[in-house]
């Protein structure tokens, strides 16, 4: 039985990936922060249904020793390093901890694997935010990086570090450069989930307005369940390579808003307040990925389209806020 370790198992991607690995017969281990163990109903809400089938270990991305000890005990076959401070806006507010945690955390995991389990296959959760201010569209693995946020910089450095471990030490270490991927499990601070929650709550009479920033930003939005399948595929190849994962189609924030509110039976124009506080110091205006290498090399393609994604998210939030979602009020918004 293959042994896999996932950092960030309590997040959107970690939870879908854990399900996928369990289905494929893996022994699944997750690294979580101490606080998650203290508040399982909220912090572990995405993995409550599989808690009896995964083993959790508490560690901190800031502590080399804590990560080293877990890897020493487990000697995993595959390691998926997903944990990070992943909210772009917040990275402007706290540049230092974003860059420090994201980069050092990756470095610690890679270094411990090199020392203790050099045969372990390593996946790094890169991001399309590395492209930032793009000179060409769509973006692929050869597009130059020009990140526009401390978060993007931390991910660019992580991709380069992973490449260096591959080239310098011969490790099977790869990065997935994933474009935006969403689902009902998305954290409430990201724009798609903020919109689906607002659409649900307004339609149920629980709120009246939604406050948003730049509505003209365009993103290439796919479904997270499709994207974790690509992560797994990357580690099953003969050769380690980085891959862009994307749908190849962009929509604006306004398109998402319109589709979500229409699904909830609402007209977004009656509820929208454009709020300057949600604008970013440096915006990434448009990202669109070219996943040809993944299509040809991994046999990967997305299965969920834009409208299906929006509808799943809105329907799920209507169920959640009308009391059919299985969580008590207050448990949905914590620790995304
Ligand atoms: O949903 P977002 O916060 O996602 P963003 O910044 O594109 O980053 C996400 O995708 C990346 C992959 O490319 C990941 F690496 C990253 O960790 C994260 O998952 O914002 C999307 C767009 C932005 O242009 C933002 O300016 O929506 C715009 N926006 C407009 N109003 C807003 C809001 N974003 C948020 N979060 N909240 C708003 O009120």
From TrEMBL:
SUPFAM superfamilies: NAD(P)-binding Rossmann-fold domains (SSF51735). Residues 5-313 form the NAD(P)-binding domain. This is GDP-mannose 4,6-dehydratase. GO terms for molecular function: GDP-mannose 4,6-dehydratase activity; NADP+ binding. GO terms for biological process: 'de novo' GDP-L-fucose biosynthetic process. HAMAP family: GDP_Man_dehydratase. It comes from Desulfobaculum xiamenense. Keywords: Lyase, NADP. Its EC number is 4.2.1.47. It catalyses: GDP-alpha-D-mannose = GDP-4-dehydro-alpha-D-rhamnose + H2O. InterPro entries: GDP_Man_deHydtase, NAD(P)-bd_dom, NAD(P)-bd_dom_sf. The keyword RNA-binding does not apply. Its cofactor is NADP(+). Catalyzes the conversion of GDP-D-mannose to GDP-4-dehydro-6-deoxy-D-mannose. Belongs to the NAD(P)-dependent epimerase/dehydratase family. GDP-mannose 4,6-dehydratase subfamily. The gene is gmd.
